[in-house]
């Protein structure tokens, strides 16, 4: 299990676009990835759960990954939370389809 605390540097906090980017990155890994802000936690593959964290700029978020690629997963999620992501576009259908599989 790999854990890391990250300070959110995104000017507008963890709003819809970075949350979508985070989900896109998270579903690419085999590891289970969870995020925690204060007493709230979220599965990193659930956009609604991530938005419910209500993480604003300056919030500290704990990333927890467990699996074969946990180090890479934590690094990728950290990149999004610190505002270092390269890709500004997100395929909404990928996230929508992934969200449906999380409901079952």
Overview of the structural elements:
It is a single chain. The chain is globular. The model is unreliable at 86-96 (pLDDT under 50). The protein has one domain: 2-Layer Sandwich (Histidine-containing Protein, Chain: A). The protein has helices at 16-26, 47-52, 70-81, 92-103, and strands at 2-7, 32-37, 40-43, 60-66. A 4-stranded antiparallel beta sheet has the order 1-4-2-3. The chain has 104 residues and is an alpha+beta fold. The protein contains 4 helices and 4 strands, in the order E-H-E-E-H-E-H-H. The longest helix is centred in the C-terminal third of the chain and has 12 residues, at 70-81.
Could you give a short description of this structure?
The protein is of the alpha+beta class and 104 residues long.
């Amino acid at each position: 299990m790999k854990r890391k605390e990250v300070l959110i540097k995104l000017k507008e906090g963890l709003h819809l676009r970075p949350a979508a980017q985070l989900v896109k990155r998270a579903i690419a890994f085999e590891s289970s990835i969870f995020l925690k802000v204060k007493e709230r936690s979220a599965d990193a593959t659930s956009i609604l759960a991530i938005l419910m964290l209500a993480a604003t700029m300056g919030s500290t978020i704990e990333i927890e990954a467990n699996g074969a690629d946990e180090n890479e997963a934590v690094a990728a999620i950290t990149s999004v939370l610190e505002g270092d992501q390269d890709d500004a576009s997100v395929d909404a259908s990928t996230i929508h389809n992934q969200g449906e599989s999380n409901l079952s």
